[in-house]
């Protein structure tokens, strides 16, 4: 048997139909606990003759039954004529062999700069046979490319699913890590200078981002209370002041976190959306990045329902769905929201007597609870950094190698609440 072709979902095309492929991808929705019969006890209702029909699992005949069933054809294991009385039945069918079946919706795993580019992502339906995903969000699938009978869309029928561990979940501290951490993190300066080296001034922003990506998800207080440890920030203020670029620098450089535009959130899904055609829940970025970090640009563009969902996620650390479908998923996600102040139109920070007025001049923060969900607010104004300081800026190499800094982030993410001491 030939080796399967390794590719990305975005590379699927008609030339691959009937070809075996291997793809690493992210699960955004699933429907399981189904089954496909591949063996029947067939009893003729005229003469009483019975016979078992079917194939051995994973045989060529077995997979033909699977393909026929998924593609809407009558499986060949059901006879047309009784062998004993030579009539066309009717027949009573009793299933005696069946295989687990379900389907997934998946998208490409994004790396580096792909994480911050706003582009239409290819979503593909995958029929999963004989294996289960069990809640895993990142997987490698092996299967055959087929054509969806009704829509003519390309689909995949997969017989093997391998979970891909999140980096921080599989992280193991090595002797080299300890040596590198001691070498490169001797002082606070090294941590800051690795954040957005093309941003002049704004030391408080560099410190904020360093704190956020290094914040443990849960903290156990000395009295035993277990509280949220992952930090949530708001960046607000004038345009072109590095609100977004400082964040996307961290995401693309360290291959950590996800970026989404609030103006497109209703289409891409902030917490979830319901696929009415298939009747499944498609989870949004806050769930797909559970235990990670999500940046929401243009936070002021979120509509009312999304605002409510975001408040609940920050408070409950999970997403609840109680509509035509019901479900829930963890969303223990660090969040940074970016917004431009002004309820009716964007206003410059210089138009406010006090900077804090810019934070509340937004429909996002109409009530006190909306403010208290967030841990810190950081303002950005044109005059924070002088033109002279910007012109003098000469970007330097990051003092800590990117792979070392990333492993430091992953080490912090891998800490359980009980690992944090005071």
Q: Please give the number of β-strands.
A: 18
Low-confidence stretches: none
Structural classification: alpha/beta
Q: Rounded to an integer, what's the Rg over CA atoms?
A: 27 Å
Mean pLDDT: 86
- Strands of the biggest beta sheet: in what spatial order? 2-4-5-7-6
Describe the sheet with the most strands.
Answer: 5 strands, mixed, barrel
N-to-C SSE series?
EEEHEEEEHHHEEEHEHEEHEHEEEHHEHH
Strand content: 25-35%
CA-CA gap between termini: 58 Å
Helical proportion, percent range: 10-25%
Principal-axes shape call: elongated
List the helices and strands and how they pair.
Layout: E1 5-6, E2 20-44, E3 50-54, H1 60-70, E4 91-108, E5 124-129, E6 138-147, E7 154-163, H2 175-184, H3 188-193, H4 203-213, E8 218-220, E9 226-228, E10 233-237, H5 243-254, E11 258-261, H6 265-268, E12 272-275, E13 280-283, H7 285-288, E14 293-297, H8 304-316, E15 318-322, E16 326-330, E17 334-339, H9 356-360, H10 368-372, E18 376-380, H11 387-392, H12 402-413
Parallel strand pairs: 1-2, 5-7, 10-17, 10-18, 11-14, 14-17
Antiparallel strand pairs: 2-3, 2-4, 2-6, 4-5, 6-7, 8-9, 12-13, 15-16
């Amino acid at each position: 048997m030939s080796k399967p072709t390794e590719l990305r979902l975005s590379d699927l095309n008609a030339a691959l139909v009937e070809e075996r492929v291997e793809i690493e991808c992210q699960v955004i929705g699933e429907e399981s606990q189904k089954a496909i019969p591949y063996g029947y006890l067939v009893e003729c209702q005229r003469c009483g003759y019975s016979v078992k029909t079917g194939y051995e699992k994973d045989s060529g005949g077995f997979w033909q039954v699977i393909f026929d069933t998924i593609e809407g054809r009558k499986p060949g294991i059901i006879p047309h004529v009784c062998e004993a009385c030579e009539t066309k039945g009717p027949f009573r069918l009793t299933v005696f062999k069946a295989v687990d079946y379900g389907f997934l919706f998946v998208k490409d795993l994004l790396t580096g700069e792909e994480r911050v580019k706003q582009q239409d992502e290819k979503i593909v339906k995958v029929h999963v046979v004989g294996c289960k995903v069990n809640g895993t969000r990142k997987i490698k699938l092996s299967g055959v490319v087929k054509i969806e009978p009704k829509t003519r869309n390309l689909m995949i029928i997969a017989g093997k699913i391998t979970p891909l561990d999140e980096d921080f979940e599989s992280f193991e501290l090595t002797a080299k890590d300890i040596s590198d951490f001691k070498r490169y993190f001797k002082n606070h300066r090294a941590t800051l200078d690795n954040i957005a080296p093309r941003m002049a001034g704004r030391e408080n922003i560099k410190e904020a981002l360093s704190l956020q990506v290094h914040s443990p998800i849960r903290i156990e207080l000395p009295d035993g209370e277990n509280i949220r440890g992952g930090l949530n920030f708001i960046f607000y203020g004038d345009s072109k002041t590095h609100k977004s670029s400082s964040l996307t620098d961290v995401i693309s450089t360290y291959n950590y976190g996800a970026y989404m535009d609030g103006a497109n959130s209703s289409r891409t899904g902030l917490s979830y959306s319901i696929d009415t055609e298939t009747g499944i829940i498609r989870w949004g970025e806050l769930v797909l990045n559970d235990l990670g970090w999500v940046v929401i640009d243009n936070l002021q563009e979120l509509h009312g329902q999304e605002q409510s969902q975001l408040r609940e996620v920050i408070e409950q650390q999970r997403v609840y769905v109680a509509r035509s479908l019901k479900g829930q998923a963890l969303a223990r996600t660090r969040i940074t929201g970016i917004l431009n102040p002004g309820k009716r139109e964007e206003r410059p920070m210089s138009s406010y007597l006090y900077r804090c007025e810019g934070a509340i001049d937004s429909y996002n923060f109409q009530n006190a609870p909306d403010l208290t969900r967030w841990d810190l607010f950081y303002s950005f104004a044109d005059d924070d950094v002088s033109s002279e300081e910007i012109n003098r800026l000469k970007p330097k190499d990051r003092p800590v190698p990117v792979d070392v800094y990333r492993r430091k982030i992953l080490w912090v993410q891998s800490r359980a609440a009980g690992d944090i001491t005071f």
